[in-house]
Design goal:
The protein is of the alpha+beta class. β7 and β8 form a beta hairpin. It is elongated. The termini are far apart.
């Protein structure tokens, strides 16, 4: 009669000589299985912690950005402290998403259907494809949007650049910017993280009165209300920042949302 007792089989396996090919292959398989289970288990356990850490880091940067904008701290305090709210925007319609929330956004963006492939001539930020949804931060005063903080990003000289752009309620005047990720050349393009350079964005207009996109990072000192100072020796990074801001403030980025706010429909 065949012995089907698993413990007996395990004992027979352990009793094999150490130089046995069967035992060597078997032990390697067991170790691989144990390691795979351990790695997957650690991933499952750590995923919510990592998500919380990313959210906490983003919140810290958000608070730092808001506090750097003159008068915003007082404005938020007068509005009750909870007026700054996170909203997921449908970038195609410019309205709040009806089926995606801040809690479900990450999961939604795992689906390829929730991304739009950009034509080369439209992809000025060099991102390839644009998410159909984005989480923005809105501050209201007397039911009107007084500040919007918009995540933006694109390709820099050495890698991706991610930032948060604060725009006043007119949706045309920049209130501030915070660079949250970059890998530009130290001492050159990496200077986009310097507070002094970021402070130059405050008060810069994006479009002129005719609606024409005018924002740019200058090649030298800013010469108009539509420019911020360039970074010496970092022309490609400066150009990248110009294109990133123009893309996201344009029709393929937050354009529909900007139009909705300006019409008073948001």
């Amino acid at each position: 009669m065949v012995d089907l007792n698993p413990f007996s089989a395990w004992e027979r396996f352990l009793g094999l000589p150490n130089e046995s090919r069967t035992k060597t292959v078997g032990m390697a398989f067991i170790v691989a299985i144990v390691c795979a289970v351990a790695v997957n288990g650690a991933t499952v356990i750590l995923r919510p912690i990592q998500a919380q850490n990313r959210a906490a880091e983003q919140q810290v940067r958000l608070e730092a950005l808001v506090s750097s904008i003159p008068g915003m701290g007082d404005l938020i305090a007068k509005a009750g402290g909870d007026a700054l709210s996170a909203v997921v925007i449908d970038l195609d319609t410019g309205q709040a998403a009806t089926d995606v929330t801040p809690e479900t956004l990450d999961a939604a963006l795992q689906a390829e259907a929730n991304w739009t492939t950009l034509a080369p001539e439209a992809d000025t930020a060099n991102i390839g494809s644009r998410p159909n949804y984005a989480q923005v931060y809105i501050l209201r005063q007397d039911d009107d949007v007084s500040l919007a903080i918009l995540p933006i990003g694109g390709a820099g000289y050495n890698g991706p650049i991610q930032a948060m752009l604060a725009v006043n309620g007119d949706m045309n005047t920049i209130a501030g910017i915070a660079i949250i990720e970059q890998s530009e050349t130290p001492g050159l393009g990496a200077r986009i993280e310097e507070p002094g350079w970021q402070a130059d964005f405050a008060g810069t207009r994006v479009r002129d009165d005719s609606g024409t996109m005018r924002f740019s990072v200058a090649r030298g000192p800013a010469a108009s209300e539509y420019e911020v100072d360039g970074i010496t020796g970092a022309t490609r990074t400066s150009n990248a920042m110009t294109q990133i801001v123009r893309f996201w403030m344009g029709p393929n980025g937050y354009g529909p949302f900007i139009d909705a706010v300006q019409r008073g429909d948001f």
